[in-house]
Amino acid sequence: MPTYDFRCLDCKARFEVFLTYQEYNQKPVHCTRCGSANVQRRINRVRVVRSDHSRLASMADPAALDALDEDPRSLGRMMREMSSEVGEEMGPEFDEVVHRLESGQSPEQIEKELPELADAAGGMGDDSGMGDFGGFDGDL
Question: What kind and span of H or E run contains 78?
């Protein structure tokens, strides 16, 4: 049987009621605290579970991706959003790079100033200057 959430408009208590589909809107509902029939159904939030791939693919707006080559701030924002969507801690190196990108520093400048990160990431020798930096290879 489904559980329905209600709120009493008299005593403001929240409570749940088990009703069959046939009973819903047929059987009167009364507050479990004060007994009042002056109750209102509460509609809860709906949560949709999506895969990591689906969440990341939704961020792949072609117009936004075109700006990444020209604007380090956009790249930094996108990397932060992707990290947030995945919900995993990417480490202090990732945070440092994202902070620098959001401050307007180019990937090439970051690579020159932090060569140890480039070495740890396996090099950044592609055209964008980012390579496989921070686990992001540009493919969604």
Answer: helix 72-86
User: In the sheet that 3-8 helps form, which strands lie side by side, from edge to edge?
Assistant: 14-18, 3-8, 39-42
DSSP line for 6-39 = EEETTT--EEEEE--TTTTTTS----TTT--S-E
Report how far Cα 104 is from the mean position of its chain's Cα atoms: 24
- Cα(20)–Cα(15) distance, integer angstroms: 17
pTM over 0.70: no
Quote the CA–CA distance of 74 and 124 in Å, as a whole number. 19
**Span(s) in the chain for CATH 2.20.28:** 3-42
14-53 pLDDT, tens digit each: 999 999 989 988 999 999 999 999 999 998 777 777 776 7
Token duo for residue 68: 């990444």
The burial of 32, by beta-carbon neighbours within 10 Å (0-12 exposed, 13-18 middle, 19 or more buried), is given as middle
What H or E segment, with its residue span, contains residue 66? helix 62-68
CATH architecture of the domain 3-42 equals Single Sheet (2.20)
